[in-house]
Predict the structure.
Amino acid sequence: MARKKIIAGNWKMNMTPSQAVELINTLKPLVGNDEVDVVFCVPAIDIIPAVEAVKGTNIHIGAENMYFEEKGAFTGEISPAMLDDAGVKYVIIGHSERREYFAETNETVNRKVLKAFEHDITPIICCGESLTQREQGVTIDFIRQQIKVAFLNVTADQAKKAVIAYEPIWAIGTGKVATTEQAQEVCKAIRDCITEIYDAATGEAIRIQYGGSVSASSAPELFAQPDIDGGLVGGASLKADFGQIVCYNK
Ligand code: 13P
């Protein structure tokens, strides 16, 4: 069975609640594409108005982060039950910005992934190498390690539903998109790694996105690759361009 593409916006730390509703209203008529799952991952404070604003559309609302405990004395954190109750279907886990600025590790990523599944929220699990790692030729080894730890104790049935986002750090926010060949090569290596951990059916089912300076012009070629099942889009998800990215096949 062909995998359905999934194109998600990562708004990062942009848009106040009222700006979020405005942006959703602008994008709503532009992102109609039944062949694609469309997700807007928004700041936590925007989630409730965003869920309200997308009612009756094909847009799903996702979160950008989540904590791995159920509840309790974790000042400032947001639990999976809170996200679930608010109507969130997806959560980005382990974005490179969270790893770099907020000390997230492969181990915390794994704990968050397991928690998200417990609450039926689909994790969008991020991985990706730095420029140094690419230049040293250790990209695939590094990413395999990120994937193997992220999926510890995750069952095959859960893994089939997961989304992985391959985001080379050097391509994020730099306007320097990976070449189609580079993106396809790593996405294939990720799929092979999942097949190795589980089985061929799981490798075939899991969806793998590319992220890093995706634009309306680079999206069609990237998303046509056999192992790239869509994109995780930063900057361009805040503009009308996101409509063109979602409708890359039209
Ligand atoms: P840009 O599309 O702005 O490069 O950001 C990519 C990203 O980090 C998405 O999670």
